[in-house]
Specification:
The chain is mostly helical. It is built from 18 helices and two strands.
Length: 406
């Protein structure tokens, strides 16, 4: 399991402290760690089938994430006007809903520039922070379109399960964050003495919403294997049919997708022994209650990455009951009989990623776009201590008391 731990530490630290070196060397780092684990399983353990299984899951995962990322890059929203506190709050709520449909990466890339334009006359650090809270993280709770919940869907968690079972804690979490944002924005709006003007919206590439609707239908109704093929074909067609000018306005690039692909190649490769270990020794860790799963999954998601945290603790929760995460029938049994633990793990993984810039992939992308626009985003520690901890931790405690305290 050492390559897995080393990879996660590298992913957490290198993009912040060694940014240039990370961008130059991340392919070698991720592929190298994965090769160590895969070679051990193939040559030392003679378990090539386990590697093939992980490879197929990786292929399914990256095709879906890539398809929604590419298609969302062909949608350009343009806004004129000035956002009032009420309108901004509604905007973020709509962003949370869109994040469930496009995935948090796609929704963040589509909405961050209109968000900047809407508040350009009084854009403050908290505008960046709350956008990350809501659109880049909380918006990924209800549908398994992107990481981490897509990993559960690939394993066999029913598509609509999260929406059916997690909607009430999601509403509490999102509602509390939006209330706090409204107070922040109200105070900022008064100090800025902003004039209220009518918002005017334009959308280029709107046909890509239809393409994403078709991909969503494939994700729900088409069997594994075929669904990835259909989704890839739809995304390729949408890319070819979308005017290049629209992607240029979005400053679209395949670079973030390539980085995500290599990172998750490393994660899928090095996680094989971690999942095996968690299934066999979960009881030794002393994590048994839903409250413990909520906070431990969330804590790991905040400081490392929410996707491996989700799978690690899902494997651990199943291991407590003698079930294997790689057996679809076992997973169905776990969902039916121990779904409250899965609720805790799902919410911890998706929501706690908002605590730091490194907790979720879109966080750093949003920060980079804000800074590229000439606006100031809070630094790593400013984000954590000035906003994330005082705003989010009390809300997570409230959710714990309402839904997981026994």
């Amino acid at each position: 399991m050492l390559p897995f731990a080393a990879l996660l530490l590298t992913i957490a630290i290198a993009p912040v402290l060694l940014r240039e070196s990370w961008h130059k060397q991340h392919v070698k780092i991720c592929a190298g760690f994965a090769a160590l684990t895969v070679s051990y399983y193939v040559f030392a353990l003679g378990s090539g089938s386990r590697v093939v299984h992980a490879g197929l899951e990786y292929a399914s995962f990256i095709i879906v994430v890539g398809a929604f990322f590419v298609t969302a890059g062909g949608i350009h929203l343009q806004v004129r006007g000035r956002g009032t506190p009420a309108f901004n709050t509604v905007f973020l709520f709509g962003g949370a809903l869109l994040g469930n449909v496009l995935g948090t990466v796609g929704a963040s890339m589509v909405l961050i520039r209109p968000w900047i334009a809407l508040n350009r006359n009084r854009f403050a650090a908290f505008h960046t922070v709350f956008f990350i809270f809501v659109v880049s993280n909380i918006g990924g709770v209800l549908l398994p379109i992107g990481p981490p919940l897509l990993l559960g869907y690939v394993k066999g968690v029913p598509f609509w399960w999260v929406a059916q079972r997690c909607w009430s804690p999601w509403v509490v979490t999102l509602g509390a964050i939006l209330i706090v944002f409204y107070v922040y924005d109200r105070l900022n709006h008064r100090r800025a003495d902003s004039k209220i003007t009518e918002e005017k919206w334009r959308c280029a590439g709107g046909s890509n919403f239809l393409a994403m609707g078709a991909m969503l239908a494939c994700l729900i109704f088409v069997p594994a294997g075929w669904r990835e093929l259909f989704i890839a074909v739809i995304a390729a067609a949408a890319y070819r049919l979308t005017a290049a000018e629209i992607r240029q306005r979005n400053e679209f690039s395949f670079t973030p997708l390539k980085e995500i692909a290599w990172i998750f190649l490393g994660i899928f490769g090095t996680m094989i022994p971690v999942l095996d270990y968690m299934e066999r020794h979960a009881g030794d860790l002393g994590i048994r209650s839903d409250l413990q799963f909520y906070w431990t999954t969330g804590g790991l998601s905040a400081v490392l990455d929410n996707a491996p945290a989700y799978l690690t603790f899902l494997a651990g929760a199943m291991g407590l009951h003698g079930l294997s995460i790689d057996d679809a029938q076992h997973l169905s049994e776990f969902v039916a009989r121990h779904d409250h633990s899965l609720i805790a793990i799902s919410l911890g993984a998706t929501c706690f990623g908002a605590l730091t810039y490194i907790g979720n992939g879109p966080n750093l992308l949003v920060k980079a776009i804000v800074e590229h626009a000439g606006l100031k985003a809070p630094g790593f520690f400013g984000y954590l201590f000035k906003f994330a901890l005082p705003v989010l931790i009390p809300i997570f405690v409230l959710v714990s008391i309402l839904f997981f305290w026994k």
